[in-house]
TrEMBL record:
Keyword Cytoplasm: yes
Residues in Methyltransferase type domain copies: 55-156
Family label: Belongs to the class I-like SAM-binding methyltransferase superfamily. BUD23/WBSCR22 family.
Domain 18S rRNA (guanine(1575)-N(7))-methyltransferase Bud23 C-terminal: 201-290
One GO cellular component, as annotated: cytoplasm
Skewed-composition ranges (Basic and acidic residues): 259-271
Domain of life, per lineage: Eukaryota
Subcellular localization(s) per the UniProt record: Cytoplasm; Nucleus
Protein's name according to its UniProt entry: 18S rRNA (Guanine-N(7))-methyltransferase
Length: 292
C-alpha cells in the first residue's frame, strides 16, 4: 500500500470513511496517544501546574489534542480535513478547531502561543497537490508563521514521517531559516517498528538553556513493542541527537468523575433552560486518563 501522502491530497484522503476508520482503530488511538505524550514531554513546559496555550497542527480527529487536554492545557487545532474535524467535534474535543491549511501559514498574532505539537502531519507539506503548490514556499509560510506566533524560548515538537532524507533536510532547513534552533530526536533508532523522529525546535537562537533531549533506546535497548526480528541495526539513518536526562515513571492520580448519568441529566437541564448544548453521543462523559 503506498503512503497516504502519495494517494491523494490530505483533505481528500481523510474523507468521512477514512476519518472514522482512523479514529476507531484502537491501535492508532494507542500509538497516537503515546507519540503525543512523548511530544508533550519534549516540549518541556515548566512544571508549575499553569495551563498553557498550545497548538496542535494537523490535529485530525483530536487524538493528539486529547493528550494536551488531559494534561490541563488549552489548545488550538488546525486541520485541512473537514471530515477529521467533524469527528473531533463529535468526540467533543476540548480544543478550538480551525479548518485551515498549515501551508498557507497560521495567521496568529506574534508571541501569543506557549508551545506547539504536530503529530504525523508536517510531511504532507513536502507534496505538491495543486499546480499552485510549491513545497518550499509552503514550508516557508508554515515555519515563518509558527515562529512568529510562539513566545520567545517556546518550543515546537513536530513528529513526522518523512519519506526520505531529502524531505527531512528540506523540513529542517526551512525551520532553521525561520529562526528556530534545535534538532532531531530519534526514539528507538534501531527498531523498524517503534522508531520515531521528532523535530524539537526552540523559538530563538541556541542558548545555555536550550533543552538538549536524548532519544529513547539510543544505547541499543529494545522497545517493549519490539521483538528481535524487528531490530534494525543499521545506524546509517541516525541523525543528530541531543543528550537528555529522562525523568522517571509518571504518577497517575485517579480522579472521581460524576458519571455519565449525571452529565446527561445536567445537559438535559441546560437544554430545558434554552442553552445550546452539544448532542449526547457515545463520547459524552467518557472516561479520560487522569491528569498529573
Ligand atoms: C495522520 S493524521 C494525524 C492526526 C492527529 N495529529 C493524530 O495524532 O491523530 C494527519 C493529519 O494532518 C492533516 N494535514 C495534512 N496536511 C495538512 C495541512 N496542509 N494543513 C493542515 N492539516 C493537514 C490531515 O488532514 C490529518 O488529519
Amino acid at each position: 500500500m503506498p503512503r497516504p501522502e502519495l494517494q491523494a491530497p490530505p483533505e481528500i484522503f481523510y474523507n468521512e470513511v477514512e476519518a472514522r476508520k482512523y479514529t476507531t482503530s484502537s491501535r492508532i488511538i494507542e500509538i497516537q496517544a503515546k507519540i503525543s505524550e512523548r511530544a508533550l514531554e519534549l516540549l518541556a513546559l515548566p512544571n508549575d501546574g499553569i495551563p498553557r496555550l498550545l497548538l496542535d497542527i494537523g490535529c485530525g480527529s483530536g487524538l493528539s489534542g486529547e493528550t494536551l487536554s488531559e494534561n490541563g492545557h488549552h489548545w488550538i487545532g488546525y486541520d485541512i480535513s473537514s471530515s477529521m474535524l467533524d469527528v473531533a467535534l463529535e468526540r467533543e474535543a476540548e480544543g478550538d478547531l480551525l479548518l485551515a491549511d498549515m501551508g498557507q501559514g497560521l495567521g496568529l498574532r506574534p508571541g501569543v502561543v506557549d508551545g506547539a505539537i504536530s503529530i504525523s502531519a508536517v510531511q504532507w507539506l513536502c507534496y505538491a497537490d495543486k499546480s499552485s503548490h510549491e513545497p518550499r514556499m509552503r514550508l516557508k509560510a508554515f515555519f515563518g508563521t509558527l515562529y512568529r506566533c510562539l513566545a520567545r524560548g517556546a518550543r515546537a515538537v513536530l513528529q513526522l514521517y518523512a519519506e526520505n532524507r531529502d524531505q527531512n533536510e528540506m523540513i529542517s532547513t526551512y525551520a532553521m531559516r525561520a529562526g528556530f534552533s534545535g534538532g532531531v530526536v530519534v526514539d528507538w533508532p534501531h527498531s523498524s517498528k517503534a522508531r520515531k523522529e521528532y523535530l524539537v525546535l526552540t523559538c530563538g537562537p541556541p542558548s545555555a538553556q536550550t533543552y538538549q533531549p536524548k532519544g529513547k533506546g539510543e544505547n541499543g535497548e529494545l522497545c517493549s513493542e519490539d521483538n528481535e526480528s524487528d531490530a534494525d541495526t543499521d545506524d546509517s539513518q541516525m541523525v543528530d541527537v541531543y543528550d537528555r536526562n529522562r525523568p522517571r515513571k509518571k504518577l497517575k492520580v485517579k480522579k472521581k468523575g460524576k458519571g455519565r448519568e449525571w452529565v446527561l441529566k445536567k445537559k438535559e437541564q441546560m437544554r430545558n433552560k434554552g442553552y445550546n448544548v452539544p448532542p449526547d453521543t457515545q463520547y459524552t462523559a467518557r472516561k479520560r486518563k487522569a491528569r498529573f
